[in-house]
Structures are given as C-alpha cells and as structure tokens.
C-alpha cells in the first residue's frame, strides 16, 4: 500500500495516481511487497528535513527514510518499508529545467525514493549504474 500525505498545495488526482503507480512499479520490478508513505512537502519543509536528518543546509528534491535504518522494535513484523518526502516545488522546478512533464518528474522521484527504501543506493559508480538502470527500466515500463 502507498499512502500519500499532502503537506502542501497543488496536488491533483493525476499526480496522486502517478506517485502510487510509480511506487508500485518500483516494488513490482524489484520483487518486493511492502508499504510506503510519501509526504508531499514544499521547499521550506524539505530544507528543514535535509538539515535535520542529513546536516545539509539546502532544499533537495527527494529524501528517503528506510524503516530498516530506524530503531529495531520488538513486535509483529510488518511490511512497512519506510517514508519518502518529495518537494513538489522542487519537482516543478526540475521538470521545467529538464524539459519534461511534472508527471514524469514525480514518477522519477518516487521511483528513486522507493529504490532507496529497498536498499539501493548510488554511493559507488557500480551501485549508481545499477540503480539508475533500474530507474530507466521502471520509467520505460510506465511509458514515461
């Protein structure tokens, strides 16, 4: 299940459907099943989060918070993979900058964040190549 938390204005049904479809496509492509929460925020909020959690004093486009990196609490195992925060403002800016639609940018950011929740990263060139190839495959599968 993908839950969307809207903490800024500007979301439409089409954008919500894109985010859900992108997260589900990423999960399916990687053979995972799980729950994800996506918070749609503005630049000020993602800037605050980036400073608080990553010690980076700037707004970014997407942040991922994998559940496996949190505290290990005893209890019933669930399928919660983690949280993603996406700046809608930054997504709009990047869509304009790259010359593609907001739908495509939100799909890309959701896929990127979802892959991080499943353990992918881009810290080495090999890892980056693997993750970026997965992103391309999933976007192609979504016809974006």
Summarize this structure briefly.
With 144 residues, the protein is an alpha/beta fold. Helices cover 51% and strands 17% of the residues. The radius of gyration is 15 Å and the shape is globular.
Strand-pairing-aware structural class: alpha/beta
Number of β-strand runs: 4
**Count of helical segments?**
5
Distance N to C terminus: 22 Å
Largest sheet: 4 strands, mixed
What are the salient characteristics of this protein?
4-stranded mixed beta sheet, globular, 144 residues, 17% strand, 51% helix, 4 strands, alpha/beta
Description:
The protein is an alpha/beta fold. It has 5 helices and 4 strands, in the order βαβαββααα. The longest helix has 17 residues, at 13-29. It is globular and about 35 Å long. It starts with a strand and ends with a helix. The mean pLDDT is 92.
Architecture blueprint of SSEs:
Elements (H helix, E strand, L loop, with lengths): L1 E5 L6 H17 L5 E7 L1 H12 L7 E5 L13 E8 H11 L3 H16 L7 H17 L3
Parallel strand pairs: 1-2, 2-4
Antiparallel strand pairs: 3-4
